[in-house]
Amino acid sequence: MNHSLYPLKFKPILKERIWGGNKLQSLFGKKIPKGTEGCGESWEISGIEEDVSTVQNGFLAGNSLNELIEIYMGDLVGEKVYEKFGEEFPLLIKLIDANETLSIQVHPDDEIAKKRHHAYGKTEMWYIIDAEPNSEIITGFKRDITTDEYLRALKNDSINELLHREKAIKNDVFFIPAGRVHAIGKGILLAEIQQTSDITYRIFDWNRIDSSGKPRELHTDLAIDVIDFNQSKNPKTHPTEEVNKTTELASCPFFTVNRLILTNSIQRDYNILDSFVIFLCIDGQCSIIYGSGESEIMKQGELVLIPAELKNIIIRPMSKCTILEIYIK
Predict the structure, then answer these.
(1) What's the confidence (pLDDT) of residue 155?
(2) 79 — phi, psi (to 5°)?
(3) Which letter does DSSP use for residue 327 in this model?
(4) What share of the chain is helix, strand, coil (3-state, %, to 5)?
(5) What is the distance in angstroms between the CA of the first residue and the CA of the last residue of the chain?
(6) What domain range is 300 assigned to?
(7) Which CATH number belongs to the domain containing residue 309 in this structure?
(8) Among residues 46, 110, 220, 268, which one has the fewest Cβ atoms lying within 10 Å of its Cβ?
(9) Looking only at Cα atoms, what is the longest distance across the chain?
(10) Percent of the chain scored above 70 by pLDDT?
(11) Active-site residue among 17, 116, 165, 202?
(12) How far is it, in rounded angstroms, from Cα 195 to Cα 114?
């Protein structure tokens, strides 16, 4: 019996959120537990301590992602990635359904997160899968502001007037470096690619109250020396549709994200990468062919982790298919 590594699928970790909707179930068939009010997030792959992903296909089914890294090390994640991150998986990938606008948040960078929380910071990227007409993303400030202006605006409830907004249109890409204030607007379904970090400073929550009748906690003091108060320049891109080609959407030290829109089979050669590769299927479905011709089907809303030791992959679309390809350079 062949026990070498293969493309891995994981059990989605579903999160109830005050602002969540039902699109993760209606569009992607995620099985939302009965009695859940709104499912805001499906964590497709996670190495976060309390929420480590579990394999759901093949002979490794039932094993956790961190156990696999412990056993397979660089063969699974890539030698350099293993040297840097050890047994912690470096990326967290979610599908997010915002039925209401989220709170305004900011994330610390690696340096501050390490000092305060012994954790990684959070730079992230959003890919808009679907958006209702006139839905918006809040990203950064309209202009350069001072710390005093910001604190004054928080105090007299006028922070909203300082924030920069962008229309969210299907296939838009938003890159959000640590330090940039941001919020997902109502009516948006997106994929989020981010560093493995669950550290969020909430700076404004639209004066909402939670199920126990209290406002949610804000982190004004923690956020103050994390925020980039400069105007946000070019926060959004809308990549042109190139079929059967690779389009780079974002590249930074923490991750590289490409988009593949396929109508024909494509061969991917990962010999020079030295990293795991993640495929996230945004639309359509395809077959992932590896090894000596074995294959794994991937449908819309599914994620597959390609271990670093698998160097040659063929993706065969069953109809037009859109995939995000994610790795660490």
Answers:
(1) 93
(2) -60, -50
(3) E
(4) 15, 40, 45
(5) 33
(6) 246-327
(7) 2.60.120.10
(8) 220
(9) 67
(10) 99
(11) 202
(12) 13
